[in-house]
Specification:
The chain has three domains: 90 residues, no CATH class; 105 residues, no CATH class; 62 residues. The chain has a four-stranded antiparallel beta sheet. The chain contains six helices and 14 strands. Keywords: Signal.
Length: 329
């Protein structure tokens, strides 16, 4: 579903009489912002091979996986050893429970831990110790299996709390200020800035990509991603139509009853969306930052906005008849 160049610049300038409309580019956001777009390039089709499990040689492989028993330790010893390892990583994990998963080829112990908050981890007793996020491992496995259902996806987290990826990603959505009922979610790769990106699906509404930056979250609506040759796997067009329909409520666009919608771009005056209406002419609506409709342009009058309507066929204007030649008296 994903193109390698996931965020492609729109092909032509978008013009308004009041000023140019440009695609949403990288923006500085504060944590919790939900309407700003993240202009990123997800490399390697969502996941960087070798960074979070894409390269088989770098995925945690254990002797347990190959049928060799792990050294015997009591549960208390396992948790104590894992807690020491976790404290030596930048995972931020306060260990709630731990499991010894075996040894890797270098005879380094491999543990799985659940954490009091956030995702769990695979911990490797290397020098220095390393930690691999269970949510990211799961996302890489999903991508690998989508290409080959029988592919070896390496060691995966097996403790029950760690298999609940949705719990973790839904919590990230709350942190990012996404106000919807999250019903699906996973990690989908890394941005050009090396930040992890997660996707969330919203029940009956447009979903989001969430980019975790050092200063907070940057969110991008799936409707905007469509305009950049990307796609959200947890969002369908009907959910995007439902979102725009809700935005139209109580405005001069309310009578439209959209059947198809698309994001066009933005300029200092606002963001522009096109809607194909159930009956009559389609329209382009301009929204402010709170997603309130500011102005509506019927498709017949919107040719200069982002190249005009694409979802509604606008008849060509009737040619003006030439005046009849004057009759000589």
């Amino acid at each position: 579903m994903f193109n390698r160049n996931l965020f492609v610049a729109l092909g032509s300038a978008l013009l308004l009489a009041a000023g140019g409309v440009a695609p949403a580019m990288a923006q500085t956001t504060t944590p919790g912002a939900t309407t700003n777009g993240a202009e990123t390039t997800v490399r390697g089709e969502r996941v960087l091979p070798g960074r979070i499990g894409g390269d088989r040689s770098e995925r945690p492989q254990t002797r347990n996986q190959r049928g060799r028993p792990a050294p015997t330790q009591t549960p208390e010893q396992v948790k104590a050893a894992a807690t020491v390892l976790a404290a030596s990583t930048n995972s931020g994990c306060a260990v709630a429970d731990a499991s010894l998963r075996g040894e890797n080829a270098e005879k380094q112990s491999v543990y799985e831990v659940t954490c009091t908050t956030g995702p769990g981890f695979i911990l490797i007793g290397s020098a220095p110790p390393s930690a691999v996020d269970c949510v990211i491992l799961s996302g890489q496995a999903d991508i690998t299996r989508s290409r080959d259902a029988a592919a070896d996806v390496g060691l995966q987290c097996a403790m029950e709390p760690n298999k609940d990826v949705l719990r973790v990603v839904a919590a990230y959505a709350v942190e990012a200020g996404v106000h919807c009922t999250v019903d699906q979610g996973s990690s989908v790769g890394k941005s050009a800035a090396d930040n992890v990106i997660y996707e969330v699906g919203c029940a009956g509404a447009d979903g989001y990509w969430l980019e975790k930056t050092p200063t907070g979250w940057v969110t991008t609506e799936c409707l905007k991603l469509v305009s950049r040759n990307a796609a959200c796997k947890y969002t369908v067009p009907a959910e995007q139509v439902a979102t725009v329909t809700k935005w139209f409520e109580g405005s001069q666009a309310a009578a439209c009853a959209p059947t198809e919608v698309r994001y066009i771009g933005s300029n200092p005056n606002g963001a522009f969306y096109e809607a194909k209406c159930a009956q009559g002419d389609g329209l382009i609506a301009r929204f402010d930052t709170a997603m309130a409709v500011q102005q509506v342009y019927p498709c017949a009058e919107a040719q200069r906005i982002g190249g005009g309507c694409k979802l509604t066929v606008v008849p060509d204007a009737a040619p003006v008849a030439a005046p009849a030649p004057a009759t000589q008296q």
